[in-house]
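Let us practice reading a record.
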Amino acid sequence: MDVFISVRRKKSTIHIDAKETWSVLDLKKAVGAILKVAVEDQQLYKDDALLDDSKTLGDSGFNSTNAKAQSPGMIGLAIKDGEEFEKLEVTDYSTPPELPDVMKPSDSNKAAE
């Protein structure tokens, strides 16, 4: 089955359509092809836990029910900076401001019906 993954690093996000049967190493190859970063210079994280290259995405907790197109599975990326890997850093997305009252759905429309 298809799984949808968002690989995030700092302010960058890469969306990848993968298979549950892909290994973490296969995902690193896809990321490496996009970013031009060698596989051995990448570390992938799920919930601050380092993912094992030999495990499949399914074994790592990603499946078609929790990694959908409208709600992809999140993976953090750290890249080797010189001799050691950088600290995992993912910048949060901004949150939109609250809707003004005139734009909020009202219950008066239902009462009029």
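A brief commentary: The chain has two helices and six strands.
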